[in-house]
Design brief:
The chain has ten helices and 19 strands. The chain is an alpha+beta fold. Strands 3, 4, 5, 6, 7 and 8 form a six-stranded antiparallel beta sheet that branches. Strands 10-11-12-15-16-19 form a six-stranded mixed beta sheet, with helices on both faces. Strands 1, 13, 14, 17 and 18 form a five-stranded antiparallel beta sheet that branches.
Length: about 400
């Protein structure tokens, strides 16, 4: 058979096309093969660095990637750059420059968990539950929580303006604040009346357990004029104020609970890793020797404050008074990446001695109170006296 020129050309084209299609199919098959995660990340970093409209280094992009990865986990996990990591260290020790508020993400809003005692924020009237929507007149939409925390810190004497949305207000509230050196004494104490003490824990720091023991001794001294242990029973009741306490270190809350609980479980944690399973138990002895305790809580009581409140409630060691707590039942671990950077990541959930998880639920008080601030402590003392009377009646009953 003799092939015409056009037919020969057609065969050649068919062969070439077939080869081309075969090569394309092979390339598509390779493209569909799953690439390793590290290769994908490396490729993405390189392509963005080379093609983005503005020059940006792969190192900077990697920091952005780390930040985005942590933010997608939960509201309490984040990447700590040099500034944020340093802020965390300073905050744990209780001294920094700022306005004195604990901020978290609630329903995607930057929300005041609690204003800290005797700080510019507290004096200005900022309240737990306030939503921060503007900083110095600029919207905070799209900003990160770590960005906001860093922006709130600064040199004492410098000023800033917060735009705040409050549920009972139709218009945006503007607060002009002057930064100050925030030195938080985590524990304050005083006598409410003879025999009835008051201890306020503003947050849990490394020294809080020691400071609580010292405060109890001071209350005993004011009551009886003696520091002898046998004189502690001169105290007849204690009000422990955890309102607007944003938490702090888990170990500090365990140490405080151990002062009041004679034995048994204080809190336990569970997570994915074996190392996240832990049980914290009380050691023998109750420094108050069974004296009635009323614990004050509200929507600003979170994390370590809820660990303490939950333990005392489960052991029947205290009555909780106020309103439902915040509901942060997760444990964060700070894992350094180097000397200047770290990740703060949720590694476990904690549970009260009875097995309750309060995460996103909170702790319900035994006695709900929605009255005025002026009468709250008076009501708490009346509750203590009623508890003491009930205990005495039980002891005298045959």
């Amino acid at each position: 058979m003799v092939l015409r020129p056009l037919t020969l050309i057609g065969i050649i084209l068919s062969i070439v096309t077939g080869i081309a299609l075969g090569v394309l199919a092979h390339q598509m098959t390779r493209a569909q093969e799953p690439a390793s995660s590290s290769h994908t990340l490396s490729s993405a970093l390189r392509k963005v660095s080379e093609n983005y409209v503005e020059e940006i280094s792969e190192e900077e992009l990697l920091l952005h990637a780390l930040d985005g990865m942590m933010q997608r986990l939960d509201d309490h996990s984040n990447f700590l750059d040099r500034s944020a990591f340093n802020d965390l260290k300073i905050n744990t020790n209780g001294r920094f420059g700022g306005i004195g508020i604990e901020v978290g993400l609630v329903d995607d809003f930057f929300t005041v968990i609690s204003p800290m005692d005797q700080t510019p924020a507290a004096r200005a009237g900022i309240k737990a539950g306030d939503r921060i929507t503007e900083l110095n007149g600029a919207s905070l939409k799209g900003r990160r929580l770590t960005d906001l925390v860093s922006a709130l810190r600064g040199e004492p004497g410098s000023t800033l303006t917060l735009g705040i949305k409050r549920d009972d207000q139709d218009t945006l509230l503007d607060f002009e604040l002057e930064r100050a050196v925030i030195e938080l004494a985590s524990v304050r104490s005083r006598l409410l009346e003879p025999g009835y003490g008051y201890i306020r824990i503003s947050q849990f720091q490394t020294q809080t357990g020691h400071d609580i023991a010292e405060a109890i001794e001071n209350l005993a001294l004011e009551t009886s004029g003696s520091l002898q242990e046998q004189e502690l029973d001169q105290l007849q009741g204690l009000v422990l104020d955890l309102r607007n306490n944003p938490g702090g270190t888990l170990q500090a809350s365990v140490e405080v609970a151990d002062h009041f609980i004679d034995q048994g479980l204080i809190v336990y944690t569970e997570g994915r890793l074996k190392s996240s399973f832990a049980k914290y138990r009380a050691t023998k002895g109750d420094v108050l020797q069974g004296i009635p305790i009323v614990v004050l809580i509200n929507g600003g009581s979170a994390s370590a404050a809820e660990i303490l409140a939950g333990a005392l409630q489960d052991h029947g060691r205290a009555l909780l008074m106020g309103s439902t707590s915040y509901g942060k039942g997760s444990v964060q671990s700070v894992l350094p990446l180097d000397d200047d950077q770290a990740i703060k990541i949720t590694t476990a959930y904690y549970f009260t001695p009875s097995g309750r998880s309060i995460h996103k639920i909170g702790i319900e008080p035994d006695v709900a109170y929605s009255g005025s601030e002026e009468t709250l402590l008076d009501e708490a003392v009346l509750l203590l006296k009623a508890e003491a009377s009930a205990d005495l009646h039980a002891q005298l009953s045959p």
